[in-house]
Amino acid sequence: MDRFAEERPLQPVWAAIVFVDVVDSVSLIQADERGMVERIRHFLAGIARSVVPSFGGQVLERQGDGLLLRFTDAGAALRCAVALQAYRPGEMPAADLAGDIRLRVAVHSGSLLSDGHAVYGAAVNLTARLLTVATAGDIVFTSDVKALADAQVHGLAPLDMGLCHLKHWREPVHLWRLPAPCGRGAAAHGVREPDWRARLAVLPFSMQGLVSAPQGLQDFLMDSLIAGLSRHPGLLVTSRLSAVNAALTALAPADVARRLGVRYLVTGSSWLMGQRLGLVMHLLDTRSDELIWTERVSGDLADLLQPESALVGTLARGCATALLQSQVRDALTMPLPQLDSHALMTGAVTLMHLVSETDLRRSEAMLHAVIERHRHIASPKAWLAKWHVLSAVQGMDERGDALTHAIDMADRALDLEPRSALALSVKGHALCHQGVRIDEAHRLLDDAVDANPSEPMAWLYRSVWHQMWGEGPLAVADAQHALGLSPLDPQLAYFEMMLGNAYLAQGDLERALPMCQSAVLKNNKHLPALRGLLLAQFESGNAAAAADSLATIRRLAPQLTVSSYLGTTQDSPLRRRVARAMQSLGLPPH
After folding, report:
1. Cβ contacts of residue 472 below 8 Å, gap of 6+?
2. How far is residue 48 from each of residues 41, 63, 71, 116, measured CA to CA in Å?
3. Residue 324 lies in a domain
4. What does pTM read for this prediction?
C-alpha cells in the first residue's frame, strides 16, 4: 500500500505554479445547481485532458471550481495560462459554456516542497493570493515569472500592475497582468481605475416605540441615512437590501462586514415619543474592532420626511468627518508600506488640502507610493499634479517650476486616460495660474466639464478661470454648481474659498466676506483663503482687520512681495485688486 502523505519525505523542488479559478462559481451554481456543476466539471476536465498536457503541465489538485497546476518551465506555464483563457470545449452540454464560465489565472514560480504528490510552501500560498487581484479574463503573474518567460506571449504585452498589497501577505508584490484574449473575460481589458472610496454599510437601527411609529419608518430611516452618506464623495455605501440581508444572519460585525465587502459599519438605535424622534448612531471600524464615532440627536419626526433633513444631515456629516479623521490618523502614524492604496489616496488628498508644509510633504510621499503601486492608473498622477499647484500657491515653490511640474504630471495622467476630467481640470488650473496660455486653460476646463459633468473639481477650477480672466457671474455660477455636486465634501473649506473669491470677482462683498471668513475659520493656513478674506475686509472698509490678515499671510509666507504674488498673472483684474490692497497695507513691492 502507498504510504500516507505525511509519511512521505518532503523534497525541495523548483516549479512554476498555476492556479485556475472559475469566477463567481457560487452565484452560477445557485442559479442552476446540478446543471452548472456538470458544466464546470466538463469544462475543467477538458482543460486537464487537452490543454495542460500539451504544455508539459501536471494537474496536482482539483478543487471543485478550480485547478492547481505544476510546470517545470515558467514560459510554458504562462503560455498554458493564455491557452486556458482561450479554451472552448469541443462538446458543450446543455448550453454555451463560453457565455457562463469565465476564468481567472495566477502564475508564480519558485522553490517549494513536494512529497511526490502534493506541493507546499510560501510559493504555493502566494500564487493563491494572486487570484484576489485578478478578475474575469485576467492572467496575473509575478516578476519571477516575467523574468523567466517571454514578455510577448502570443502577441499580448504584459501590463505592469506595480507593487500590489495582497491579503495576509506581509510585503507588497510586484505583479504583471496579461489582457484577456478577445471574446473572454470582462468587457474592458484595459487597466481599471480603482475605486478609492471607503466602503461602508448601514445596518438596521433597533427601534423603540414601534406601536406608535408610522409603518415603514425603519426602512425610511435607513434609506435616508444611506442617501445622506452617499452624497459624500469619499464613501461607497452598500444598498439597504444587501445590508438588511447580511444583518439577518446574526454574524459577528467583522463577519457581516466581510460578507458585504466593507470595512466600516454604521449601527444605532432610535426611539419615538409622540412626534419626537431620537437617534443614536455608531461608526465601527471592523478591521480594528474600534468604535470610532458615536452621536445622539433628536428632533421632530416631520424633519425626517424633509428632502434636506437636519437630523440626517447632522448624522451624515458627523459620520463622514469621523471616518475621514480616522483614515488621516492612520495615514499620519502608519508606515507607507503598511497602508493600503485606498488609505494612501484618501490621506494624501485630505492632507494636501490642509496645506501646511508638513502635511503637504507627507501628502507628496503618499501620492508617490500610490503611483509606484499603480503605475498605469491616471488619478494618482492627476492628484500629484494638483499637489504641485498647491505647493506653488502656498509659496513652497522655491525654484519656480511647480506649475511646470503640475502640467507635466497632468499630461502623464492624460496619456493614460485622455478623458480624465480630473487630469484635464488640473492641467487647466495650472495653466490658469501660469497666466500664459489662458485660452488653452479655458478649453481644457470646458473639456473637463464635458468629459464628466459630475466632477466637482472641473466646475471649481473653471470658476477660478472666470475669477482671474473671465466674468464674475460665471465664476459664481460654476463655484455654486461645484458645491452643489459635493455638499459634504471633506475639503469644504477649499470650496468655500473658491466661492468667496468668485463673489469677490463679481464685486459682491456682502456675500464674499462671510464665505471667506468661514473658509479661513476651517483652515487658517490656506493662503488663497487668507488673501480673499484680506481683500473682502479691505474693500469693505475694515483696514485694521485686513492688516491682521496680511500679518498672518506674511508669517506663513515671509518672502512674499507684491511682484512675486503677481508673477505672470498681473493682467488678472482680481489679482491686481489683491495686490493693490496688500501694497496699501504695507507689503513690499519687490
Report:
1. 466, 502, 503, 504, 505, 506, 507, 508
2. 10, 13, 13, 19
3. no
4. 0.62
